[in-house]
Model the fold of this input.
Amino acid sequence: MLAVMRRARTDTYEHTITGLLTKRADLCHEAERLRDRLGQINNDIVAIDHVLATFGHEGDIDAQMPRRREARFGRNELARLIADQMRQSEGPVSSRAIAAQIIAQRGEDAGDRKYLADMTRRVSKALRHLRVRGRVQSRADARGNLLWERRISE
Done:
């Protein structure tokens, strides 16, 4: 038996567009709730670690946890994000500032200092690789911190 598909009553896609926009909004709200919950969980873990240390626990807490590697970026994604941030900057910028902008752009928890430090390390390493490839250059500021900028092609 063949199923007969009836033609829509309108020639536009208004209903489809409205449905897709509604679904997109729902998914954005769900992603925001999940990010908030993940931030809460990370803060709880830090608090538990602090209490364990207060009670005198001296073992390596992370050694007792299951190992898992979490891929935060796809192939060359971090380098592209860094390049985007450097294009938008007015002048030389620190790896920490780039990391903070990437975190904000991705909608992640900007208040998580441990995550910001981890992201800064990742950005710094990626910038060093980009410097070797001749894409960026660095110079030290008055405090000795490296400031990065795109290399102007000659």
